Amino acid sequence: MFTSRYFPCAECGASVERVAVEEHxxxxxxxxxxxxFGLREEIATFEDRLADYLDxxxxxxxxxxxxxxxxxx
Length: 73
Prior knowledge:
This protein is mostly helical. It is built from four helices and two strands, in the order ββαααα. About 55% of the residues lie in helices and about 10% in strands.
């Protein structure tokens, strides 16, 4: 059976050579990109879910309350 020399880092998804596991360090940029990749479906539907929420009574109240607080400040 064929075994790859590389495997994905569980934290950042980077392809890491098996012999370099100890030296691998996740960069903050790579961690952020990997987490955003994991959230891509949720991010893509955010605007639709927000619009649906703002159409509810609670959403309309929150918009009213936010506007009121801005005017008072």
